[in-house]
Amino acid sequence: MTILDAYRITREPFYRPVGREIELFEAAYASRMPVMLKGPTGCGKTRFVEHMAWRLGRPLVTVSCHEDMTASDLVGRFLLDAEGTVWHDGPLTLAVREGAICYLDEIVEARQDTTVVIHSLTDDRRILPLEKKNEVVTAHADFQVVISYNPGYQSVLKDLKESTKQRFGALAFAYPSPAVETEIVMREAGVERRMAETLVRIAERSRNLKGHGLEEGASTRMLVNAGLLVARGVPVEEACQVAMVVPITDDPDLREALSGAIAACL
């Protein structure tokens, strides 16, 4: 048993390709090109990374980025234990040493002074300096960095530095076509085609409200959640309220508009 056994994906995660993203990612991995996945929340970026890690037979170390995350949270720190002060690798360093794919989820949520730690790993140097340990770690031949990024949340305060963006190849993700999204909801939620088609129509109407009070419409993930509730016997309208309406807005007028869209589709 190795340290990365817990990070290996042993069963194939379901992923329905919508274009040539699998072939493009495989080509990027073959050249160890860092990859950025750009797209709205809940459109399948994380599932895609999991599928590709399984497909390539590589461990996947995932880091959920947030504004309080420090560089030490990524690379590691000295900690006290029974034997004294001992260095503990962070998730990024673990992936660098052992040859895993390191997935930084929603990297824009992290501070820019934290994310610059990946710069030396995402150019031809492929090294990670551990300043506190006075060590330079050369990346394992199988190591790769993947980040996800939601362009819809860009702002002056929350965006990637240009010097970071230009180190990556990028794959653009969007919500699938209605036919493909219906197939996904059927497969993931275990509902019949007619029900899946209804949920997809509701989602399309919610997405039309983006920019008119909603930051994002209902995601594919939300459709699957609604379908799971329906499969458990929850009435459709109630399932949509729980999984698709209440989570995305507190505005009474928007909730009423979304409820009207649901009623019109049923």
UniProtKB/TrEMBL annotation:
Domain called CbbQ/NirQ/NorQ C-terminal: residue spans: 181-264
Entry annotated with the keyword ATP-binding: yes
Keyword Kinase among UniProt keywords: no
Keyword annotations of the record: ATP-binding, Nucleotide-binding
Residue intervals of the ATPase dynein-related AAA domain: 34-168
InterPro entries from the UniProt entry: ATPase_dyneun-rel_AAA, CbbQ/NirQ/NorQ/GpvN, CbbQ_C, P-loop_NTPase
Pfam families named among the record's database cross-references: AAA_5, CbbQ_C
Gene Ontology molecular function, alphabetical: ATP binding; ATP hydrolysis activity
Record family assignment: Belongs to the CbbQ/NirQ/NorQ/GpvN family.
Protein name: Nitric oxide reductase NorQ protein
